[in-house]
């Protein structure tokens, strides 16, 4: 689908020189051309001249050297240059002459070297010569049928003689590649014929125009060389030799094969010429000598008969173009999908009939750079592959692509007819070969440029059915004899611009051709060279690209008159300069996108990417492909706001993976498609998410919901975007949505796909930065939501409101809107079905089927029963798979019941026991109600039902209390009994709940005898003391048992010494102060022991924790492996890097992470819960040396700090008590110990709980959320994940010292 566009062309007329041009070669270091003139029959002299890269006339050719070259053989009238090659590394030329001399010409000879030196000579004469691609070997064939190999120093290393026995080197067996003999024609056709044997076998008959020349061609890698010679004057034979001079193969006989030969650099085929009576074919051979297809040159039989001169073949360096040279022209052919296209025809501009035939010479490093030599001229040309596509702006984006194929123009509107090449939807025959083609802004005019004329075709792709293009007119080009036409393009509808080069001066000129009215004029410009003219994306401007990178813009408001008006407009320098350019207008700013040959894509002077392979620009996107085989979309914006998406096709809609080597052909935003061409030539049409979503968003913004809906439906886009992209607008335009989406099924499809996720913020997040403010304005924040902020319910309610006026036409949509709510409003949907049944609507069956399709039929049946509509329940049951023998008897039994009993039975069947209880109350069956309450534990409901009937309320309360007591809910039971004034039962319940205040209070209200009350109080005091609630126990002994000594003892045990002293004074018992002193001594001893334990624990655990963390940081393998020095035992010559084989079974690291590939996941999944429990016990123990030790130590220190905070007040009361009783030394010791422990805790908090590290981890939490492993590995995985989480360090409570202690 690509054409060859001529971007540079220089014509140098050599008529001023006396000697004819006989050979040329490239100097690849400076892109200059080395030209050899002579010798001729009149003057046996050879001249070497250099044509620089920017030279445009013959006066610029500088003379390198010249010398006499008489013919050394009598049978050779004039010597001939067989090979001319330039060596850039030594700045020297090597000439191989037919007379046998090998001459080296040095531009800058070193001391002791000659300017011109004959370095070797072959006495027998030389028929052909060729240097290998690496310039290390020179292959020479002599006139006595020998093949010589010479080194760069011209030492002969191989000498091979051509013999008749060489034909036996290959035993050819044709498999009929591409032949009709191998095609299936039915079982009776040629049933006994071997398909590998053709009907006619060629004998190798010589062509009557064969000139007997010998050709040598190397393969691109220099491993093989092919030699085309005449064998025994009877047939042409192509011999293939290895680099060592060993014969590899010979070609099969081919009739009328001639001397030209060219080995494709890719190495797969060798091209030759077969001249038949009525046609000329370019035939292909494999390296083994077998035929491998051919193509026919586009010539009539008369032209074939007139053609008497030789034909030459030459592949370019990347094997994409083959040049076929005739006497007066050179044709450039390309191949796609096994079809050869004639892309360009270059005339030699030679007037003499005896001139040397044309010859094409490709640049060895620049694939599309070539020189065409003739006897009196040389042309230097540069081409670029381009796509002649139509407009990309809707509504004219028909995807029209024009392909040049000689005198045939292939046209295909890819949006309407995706015809694969080499076929085309339309094929137009032209008067002469096309040079370039362009399509206008509406796609209705196609301009085809020829050498001497301009053809304009009329085409309307909007017609149905499509009609072939018609030639509107053929217009001769003025001054075509003085200019060479190169490019053509449209601006707007009817303005055509033609880029030409003057033959005499080489200056580039631009002609303007207006269709309406018909005028022709020239454009003056200040550019020294123009390599490209191209319309802008909107066809409102014309972009002129200069050779130095300068780009000029001619807007549509500027006109060109016959007065040669100067060009004005945008002036941007693009660096590096590339042959592919697009001009886009972003607001008032113009941006020129330029792609260089090395893959650098620029926007004006800003480099965007370095790995681009093709690009195009639509009204909304810059689309390009990369060498990583990705298709990327860039939202058009100002130059510095263009954002290149990352290489993340899985997460970014602007990036998509494509097939290797794919190139962009065109894009059709109207159909959301992009057409790519694969390297072989076949087309692939894709629908990238970026284009699809852009089109959908555009339709939503324009309130074209029907277009957006069908785009979502066809491209499998989540339909939630119809709401989520513009929620407020959608909710306000639901009636418009229903009017556009008329089909009931389509509305149901939309409602059934609703979900709570906001897809515009997740899977279809907008990637245009300028729309963020718009999203904030039109987002969900400004919408008043109901029903727990549910998006689905809000939309369904909106549809229900809009469908109120369309109930008769859209009952199915109403049902869908109710059922699709979250949770589903099944009863509302069933109500719609019930109303249809009551109205006798014929659609009731369809409605029932529809609701059963949307929801679980069993749930629908239960909800239908819950509506107490037996007919509706029967209708739903008939749509289910239920057995009629199951539901019919049940429904019949319900029909026979009274209304209240029926409702009670239905609610009881459905498990709606609270509702069933209300029906029993309405039936006034209190005994059954009590039994039903006890059966289903409905006491709270029953109490609420009888809250205004005190007697029955008390009866239910009694049932509830009796229900709570045996279920160990003693507190609630006690309150219930006390509500019923049953103090005996209440006291017992409170006693069981260890509520001593309430129990003793109820006991005094019975009232209990004093002895029983004392017994009860003693039991409660013992229970409180046993649970270490000494303060409550002391209070009971003091208030109810009047035991002061026991109370004081208990107060001392809970460190309430001040209260104990107060009781002594209150009851006038100074004798009990000795008991308080004893309690103080015991308390100080206990507290001192506790604080000593805390200090020793900190002293042991903090250093150990420090050691573990240092080990984990310096040697993590040893830390997780649980082995000391595990890294030290590994030899230096053993790799410990994981590999696909070594990690398949897991390593000692994967034992603790569970994050591995291969079979480890399967092994982990087989871990049993028993292993997990065992591992959990290991984690709880935190055994020394295990991987859980660090976690255990951190938790242990945390618990210690909590304990220190708890005893802080107790220590303070203890110190005060000791001072009050004169025990200052003990008080000082306890306080000092407490201060030391508190300071130690404060000092280690930062280190133990890693306060600085947890602050750094706050932003990283939750980044790695791999699947949690199972079994024992999951325990440590949980531990490691827990360690990553931010854990707040505990606060150490401040201990207030007593100043009296000192």
From TrEMBL:
<feature type="domain" description="ELP1 alpha-solenoid">
    <location>
        <begin position="689"/>
        <end position="894"/>
    </location>
</feature>
<dbReference type="InterPro" id="IPR056165">
    <property type="entry name" value="Beta-prop_ELP1_2nd"/>
</dbReference>
<comment type="pathway">
    <text>tRNA modification; 5-methoxycarbonylmethyl-2-thiouridine-tRNA biosynthesis.</text>
</comment>
<keyword id="KW-0963">Cytoplasm</keyword>
<feature type="domain" description="ELP1 N-terminal second beta-propeller">
    <location>
        <begin position="403"/>
        <end position="665"/>
    </location>
</feature>
<dbReference type="InterPro" id="IPR056164">
    <property type="entry name" value="Beta-prop_ELP1_1st"/>
</dbReference>
<feature type="domain" description="ELP1 TPR">
    <location>
        <begin position="902"/>
        <end position="1062"/>
    </location>
</feature>
<dbReference type="GO" id="GO:0002926">
    <property type="term" value="P:tRNA wobble base 5-methoxycarbonylmethyl-2-thiouridinylation"/>
</dbReference>
<dbReference type="Pfam" id="PF23925">
    <property type="entry name" value="A-sol_ELP1"/>
</dbReference>
<dbReference type="InterPro" id="IPR056166">
    <property type="entry name" value="TPR_ELP1"/>
</dbReference>
<dbReference type="GO" id="GO:0000049">
    <property type="term" value="F:tRNA binding"/>
</dbReference>
<dbReference type="InterPro" id="IPR056169">
    <property type="entry name" value="HB_ELP1"/>
</dbReference>
<comment type="function">
    <text>Component of the elongator complex which is required for multiple tRNA modifications, including mcm5U (5-methoxycarbonylmethyl uridine), mcm5s2U (5-methoxycarbonylmethyl-2-thiouridine), and ncm5U (5-carbamoylmethyl uridine). The elongator complex catalyzes formation of carboxymethyluridine in the wobble base at position 34 in tRNAs.</text>
</comment>
<dbReference type="Pfam" id="PF23936">
    <property type="entry name" value="HB_ELP1"/>
</dbReference>
<dbReference type="Pfam" id="PF04762">
    <property type="entry name" value="Beta-prop_ELP1_1st"/>
</dbReference>
<dbReference type="InterPro" id="IPR056167">
    <property type="entry name" value="A-sol_ELP1"/>
</dbReference>
<protein>
    <recommendedName>
        <fullName>Elongator complex protein 1</fullName>
    </recommendedName>
</protein>
<dbReference type="Pfam" id="PF23878">
    <property type="entry name" value="TPR_ELP1"/>
</dbReference>
<dbReference type="InterPro" id="IPR006849">
    <property type="entry name" value="Elp1"/>
</dbReference>
<dbReference type="GO" id="GO:0033588">
    <property type="term" value="C:elongator holoenzyme complex"/>
</dbReference>
<keyword id="KW-0539">Nucleus</keyword>
<feature type="region of interest" description="Disordered">
    <location>
        <begin position="1152"/>
        <end position="1182"/>
    </location>
</feature>
<dbReference type="Pfam" id="PF23797">
    <property type="entry name" value="Beta-prop_ELP1_2nd"/>
</dbReference>
<feature type="domain" description="ELP1 first N-terminal beta-propeller">
    <location>
        <begin position="1"/>
        <end position="365"/>
    </location>
</feature>
<feature type="domain" description="ELP1 three-helical bundle">
    <location>
        <begin position="1076"/>
        <end position="1240"/>
    </location>
</feature>
<feature type="compositionally biased region" description="Polar residues">
    <location>
        <begin position="1153"/>
        <end position="1164"/>
    </location>
</feature>
<keyword id="KW-0819">tRNA processing</keyword>
<dbReference type="GO" id="GO:0005634">
    <property type="term" value="C:nucleus"/>
</dbReference>
<comment type="similarity">
    <text>Belongs to the ELP1/IKA1 family.</text>
</comment>
<dbReference type="GO" id="GO:0005829">
    <property type="term" value="C:cytosol"/>
</dbReference>
